[in-house]
Design brief:
Strand content: under 5%
Distance between the termini: 51 Å
Helix content: 55-70%
Number of strands: 2
Largest sheet: 2 strands, antiparallel
Number of helices: 5
Shape: elongated
Number of domains: 2
Strand order of the largest sheet: 1-2
Order of helices and strands: HHHHEEH
Radius of gyration: 26 Å
Length: about 160
């Protein structure tokens, strides 16, 4: 792990390549069972890589997935030639759906990180408060911070609600 809390780029990109290879291996082994869902494991690889890596490794994963699917899974196997046919449409669907997954998961991850940062900020402010905090919303109960409960300050003041 780097000092910023993120993994080393070489590891993230290496995992992206490994995820494509694993998805390809499992797809080839399970091809009779997958039938039409030949790209399902590649979509799963994109989700895992964008969540644990970042967008860059996920884009590499998408590109490698498209090349691997064209070379190994789309007929004629063993060729990288893309002819205008339903195979081209299948590859475009793979890439576009993978890009959509990448966008959604990256946005979800950013939202979760912002939520954690906001929660940590509020927690820090509440814990740093000398007197304490009383919080209530319109429908809920009144919440007291531990500092407020342990303080004698509130007991000497008249409080009206």
């Amino acid at each position: 792990m780097a000092a910023s809390g993120r993994s080393v780029p070489l590891v993230r990109y290496g995992l992206a390549v490994a995820a494509v290879l694993l998805a390809l291996l499992l797809t080839v082994l399970l091809q009779p069972l997958l039938d039409r869902g030949v790209f399902l494991l590649f979509f799963g690889a994109v989700i895992v890589i964008v969540w644990y890596g970042s967008v860059g490794p996920a884009l590499l994963n998408i590109c490698l997935s498209a090349v691997a699917c064209q070379y190994f899974l789309i007929h004629p196997a063993g060729m990288v030639v893309i002819e205008p046919s339903e195979d081209l449409v299948r590859l475009l669907v793979l890439v576009l759906v993978s890009l959509l997954i990448c966008t959604v998961v990256a946005s979800w991850k950013r939202s979760e990180q912002a939520l954690w940062a906001s929660e940590a900020h509020v927690r820090c402010r509440v814990e740093a408060n000398i007197i304490g905090v009383i919080h209530s919303d319109f429908y809920g109960p009144i919440f007291w911070t531990p500092m407020m409960l342990s303080s004698r300050w509130w007991a000497t003041r008249e409080m009206s609600f």
